[in-house]
Amino acid sequence: MSRAFVKEDSDAPPPPPLPRTVSDAPNRVTPRGLRLIEEEVARLEQQLAAADEEGRPLIERDLDYWRLRRNTAHVERPPEDASSVAFGTQVDLIRDGKPMTIRIVGEDEADPKTGDIAWTSPLVTAIEELKPGDTTEFEAGGRIQELEIVSVSAVDR
Protein backbone atom coordinates (compact mmCIF):
# COMPACT_ATOMS: atom_id res chain seq x y z
CA MET A 1 0.00 0.00 0.00
CA SER A 2 1.25 3.48 -0.83
CA ARG A 3 2.23 5.66 2.15
CA ALA A 4 0.54 8.60 0.44
CA PHE A 5 -2.82 7.61 1.89
CA VAL A 6 -1.73 6.57 5.38
CA LYS A 7 -2.70 8.94 8.17
CA GLU A 8 0.37 10.42 9.85
CA ASP A 9 0.60 10.44 13.62
CA SER A 10 -0.48 13.99 14.42
CA ASP A 11 0.81 13.65 17.98
CA ALA A 12 4.43 13.46 16.83
CA PRO A 13 6.44 16.48 17.96
CA PRO A 14 7.61 18.85 15.24
CA PRO A 15 11.25 18.55 14.26
CA PRO A 16 13.61 20.92 16.08
CA PRO A 17 14.42 24.17 14.28
CA LEU A 18 17.58 24.19 12.22
CA PRO A 19 20.50 26.02 13.82
CA ARG A 20 21.13 29.59 12.70
CA THR A 21 23.92 30.00 10.18
CA VAL A 22 27.09 31.51 11.64
CA SER A 23 29.46 33.48 9.43
CA ASP A 24 32.92 32.07 8.79
CA ALA A 25 34.39 35.58 9.10
CA PRO A 26 36.02 36.70 12.36
CA ASN A 27 33.41 38.13 14.73
CA ARG A 28 34.59 41.74 14.84
CA VAL A 29 32.31 43.96 16.92
CA THR A 30 32.27 47.57 18.03
CA PRO A 31 31.74 48.31 21.74
CA ARG A 32 28.12 49.15 20.84
CA GLY A 33 27.82 45.85 18.93
CA LEU A 34 28.90 43.89 22.01
CA ARG A 35 26.32 45.74 24.13
CA LEU A 36 23.61 44.85 21.59
CA ILE A 37 24.63 41.17 21.65
CA GLU A 38 24.58 41.12 25.46
CA GLU A 39 21.14 42.77 25.48
CA GLU A 40 19.84 40.15 23.04
CA VAL A 41 21.19 37.29 25.19
CA ALA A 42 19.51 38.77 28.28
CA ARG A 43 16.22 39.30 26.41
CA LEU A 44 16.20 35.71 25.12
CA GLU A 45 17.07 34.30 28.56
CA GLN A 46 14.02 36.10 29.97
CA GLN A 47 11.84 34.79 27.13
CA LEU A 48 13.13 31.26 27.69
CA ALA A 49 12.31 31.40 31.40
CA ALA A 50 8.70 32.33 30.56
CA ALA A 51 8.28 30.09 27.49
CA ASP A 52 6.05 27.06 27.20
CA GLU A 53 7.37 23.76 25.79
CA GLU A 54 6.20 24.64 22.29
CA GLY A 55 8.05 27.96 22.20
CA ARG A 56 11.29 26.78 23.80
CA PRO A 57 13.08 25.21 20.79
CA LEU A 58 13.10 28.38 18.71
CA ILE A 59 14.20 30.55 21.64
CA GLU A 60 16.91 28.01 22.56
CA ARG A 61 18.16 28.02 18.97
CA ASP A 62 18.39 31.82 18.92
CA LEU A 63 19.97 31.90 22.37
CA ASP A 64 22.63 29.39 21.25
CA TYR A 65 23.44 31.67 18.29
CA TRP A 66 23.75 34.85 20.38
CA ARG A 67 25.78 33.14 23.12
CA LEU A 68 28.18 31.87 20.48
CA ARG A 69 28.44 35.36 18.96
CA ARG A 70 29.09 36.84 22.42
CA ASN A 71 31.74 34.23 23.20
CA THR A 72 33.57 34.71 19.88
CA ALA A 73 33.33 38.52 19.77
CA HIS A 74 36.53 40.49 19.17
CA VAL A 75 35.79 44.01 20.36
CA GLU A 76 37.56 46.63 18.27
CA ARG A 77 37.51 50.24 19.32
CA PRO A 78 37.28 52.93 16.64
CA PRO A 79 40.74 53.91 15.37
CA GLU A 80 42.43 56.88 17.05
CA ASP A 81 43.56 58.20 13.68
CA ALA A 82 40.60 57.67 11.36
CA SER A 83 42.39 58.93 8.27
CA SER A 84 41.29 56.06 6.03
CA VAL A 85 38.24 53.81 5.71
CA ALA A 86 38.42 50.99 8.27
CA PHE A 87 36.35 49.04 10.78
CA GLY A 88 34.79 51.39 13.31
CA THR A 89 34.76 54.44 11.05
CA GLN A 90 31.99 56.64 9.74
CA VAL A 91 32.39 57.43 6.06
CA ASP A 92 30.78 60.27 4.16
CA LEU A 93 30.87 59.42 0.47
CA ILE A 94 29.30 60.22 -2.84
CA ARG A 95 27.83 57.22 -4.63
CA ASP A 96 26.85 57.91 -8.21
CA GLY A 97 26.45 61.61 -7.46
CA LYS A 98 24.39 61.09 -4.28
CA PRO A 99 25.81 61.80 -0.82
CA MET A 100 25.51 59.09 1.82
CA THR A 101 26.94 58.30 5.22
CA ILE A 102 27.79 54.80 6.41
CA ARG A 103 29.28 53.35 9.58
CA ILE A 104 31.43 50.23 9.29
CA VAL A 105 30.40 47.75 11.99
CA GLY A 106 30.25 44.04 12.81
CA GLU A 107 27.96 41.64 10.97
CA ASP A 108 25.38 41.34 13.75
CA GLU A 109 25.26 45.11 14.25
CA ALA A 110 24.71 45.86 10.56
CA ASP A 111 21.47 47.53 9.50
CA PRO A 112 21.67 49.06 6.02
CA LYS A 113 18.50 51.11 6.65
CA THR A 114 20.34 53.10 9.32
CA GLY A 115 23.66 53.24 7.46
CA ASP A 116 25.33 50.55 9.60
CA ILE A 117 27.17 48.39 7.06
CA ALA A 118 28.97 45.11 7.85
CA TRP A 119 32.72 45.16 7.42
CA THR A 120 32.34 42.05 5.22
CA SER A 121 30.02 43.73 2.69
CA PRO A 122 31.11 44.26 -0.93
CA LEU A 123 30.70 48.04 -0.54
CA VAL A 124 33.10 48.17 2.41
CA THR A 125 35.54 45.87 0.61
CA ALA A 126 35.52 48.31 -2.33
CA ILE A 127 36.36 51.36 -0.18
CA GLU A 128 38.52 49.85 2.57
CA GLU A 129 41.74 51.82 3.19
CA LEU A 130 40.66 54.69 0.91
CA LYS A 131 41.21 58.25 2.14
CA PRO A 132 39.19 61.44 1.64
CA GLY A 133 39.46 62.51 -1.99
CA ASP A 134 40.01 58.95 -3.25
CA THR A 135 37.64 57.52 -5.85
CA THR A 136 36.91 54.00 -6.97
CA GLU A 137 34.37 52.03 -8.97
CA PHE A 138 31.89 49.63 -7.43
CA GLU A 139 29.70 47.11 -9.24
CA ALA A 140 26.17 46.85 -7.89
CA GLY A 141 23.03 45.64 -9.57
CA GLY A 142 24.96 44.76 -12.71
CA ARG A 143 26.28 48.28 -13.26
CA ILE A 144 29.38 50.23 -12.32
CA GLN A 145 28.96 53.05 -9.80
CA GLU A 146 31.44 55.81 -8.98
CA LEU A 147 32.37 56.20 -5.31
CA GLU A 148 34.19 59.19 -3.85
CA ILE A 149 35.31 59.34 -0.23
CA VAL A 150 34.48 62.76 1.25
CA SER A 151 35.45 62.28 4.91
CA VAL A 152 36.34 59.58 7.43
CA SER A 153 35.93 59.80 11.20
CA ALA A 154 35.80 57.42 14.16
CA VAL A 155 32.35 56.07 14.96
CA ASP A 156 31.07 57.89 18.02
CA ARG A 157 28.80 55.28 19.68
CA radius of gyration: 21 Å
State the low-pLDDT regions, or none: none
**Major sheet size, sense and barrel closure:** 5 strands, mixed
Q: What's the CATH topology label of the largest domain?
A: Chitinase A, domain 3
Order of helices and strands: EHHEEEEHEE
At CATH level 2, the architecture of the largest domain is Roll
> Which class best fits the helix and strand makeup?
alpha/beta
Mean pLDDT: 92
Write out the strand line-up for the largest beta sheet, numbering strands in chain order.
5-4-3-7-6
Number of domains: 2
**CATH homology superfamily of the largest domain:** Transcription elongation factor, GreA/GreB, C-terminal domain
> What is the number of strand segments?
7
Beta-strand percentage range: 25-35%
CATH top level of the largest domain is Alpha Beta
Task: State the end-to-end distance.
Answer: 65 Å
Instruction: State the shape.
Output: elongated
Q: Please give the share of residues in helix.
A: 25-40%
Number of helices: 3
Protein name: GreA/GreB family elongation factor
Biased composition (Basic and acidic residues): 1-10
Pfam families: GreA_GreB
Keywords: Elongation factor, Protein biosynthesis
